[in-house]
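Continuing the series of single-chain predictions for the mutant panel. This is the parent chain; the variants come on the following pages.
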Amino acid sequence: MNEAIKPKAICGRPVHSFFTGKDKYLRLQKHCISDITPPISENESTFILVTDGGGTITINGVTFPMKRGSFVWLQSYHTFTIKAYSIQPLKLNVCVYDYPLSSFLTFHEPASDTVDAIIDAPPIITLDGNRLEKIEGLFDEFEEEDSCFDPGSSLIKVAILGQFANFFIHHSLKQHRPDSPPERPLGWKAALYISAHFAEDITAQGVASHFGSTAAALNRELRTISGYSFSQFLNRVRVNIASIALLYEGMSLSYVAAHSGFPSDVAFYRIFKKYMGTTPIEYRKLLLNDGQGVYRGMIMSTTLMEVLNYSYSSYSEPVDIKETSKKLFISESVIRDLVYENFSSHYKDLAILTRIRHAEALLLTTDLPIVDIAVNVGFNCSRSFTRTFKRIYGMAPSEYRERNRGGRNQNGKEK
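Parent structure:
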């Protein structure tokens, strides 16, 4: 029992929508923290990269140092406070983990060893060298797409968020030591347990007993680190899961309620409105009708999400519809029909657009030769790449680079 490990208490009730909101999906945010934030408890998952400065972040009562290269993956079950050193303001790049990808992962349960590794791992990594360059490059690519509102840009951004998640997962698996898990306070462990077992009929006493403690001690610890009692914490987790599931096509409200762990439809409606300030149906309409210029719509079927995620993650490989069909055990006709119905496009065209958009980012942010870019994004030769690029943009890749880089030298400075 690790109750002797004292968590750092939050000061006041946590605030929401500090980094997240209806207008912040698929947008890069830049923040400068010069003092200390209030306790924050978001309804979304976020990625944070420290680009300059120093300070600390306290997550569920545990404090971690922050400096340039600190990379953080925060979840909706985290309550956190960011504090900057007085002489070193913290400069942050922030991305909300977009709900289509989040929902896709929610409905595809990872292997048990992966879950254990993620639970044991701290939600912050310190990067340097090539690893930092890679993540910084992905954030730069994400920002490059901010000026575009077309479906291709949205797909690339979702793919980048997926790469961030995979980076954390792979790091967690490498660091995982099942025989010697890290020492954490009771509240930290309970928050993770609740988030993993939200759909079960769990109680404060049952969770406390699992960790060799009492219900009173558990409630006290949870209030200390999050501002919520056990029942409030559990309800909030369930509401957040439901808010994602509501955006799935063809999913009934009764199924959403059951999937999220609510004992009845009545309890679902009542608790959802209490936490979100609106009914489930009103919440869905609010998200779908807001955010002009930002990708917004009902989340497509799990089958299409599976196809798209496989396509995005394999954009640099010679993947065609036959290969996708074989890998995912989905017929070619189903893939073909789903893509055309949702995008009025053929699978091949969608894959090509994804590659070209990645190539565009490389042309503008690197000095790689055209032939290397062609290979990097999955074309067999530079001639095929140039011909395809010219068909879409009306000019050759070299001309596009010259026009849009504004006469900059190799270091990105004006000549």
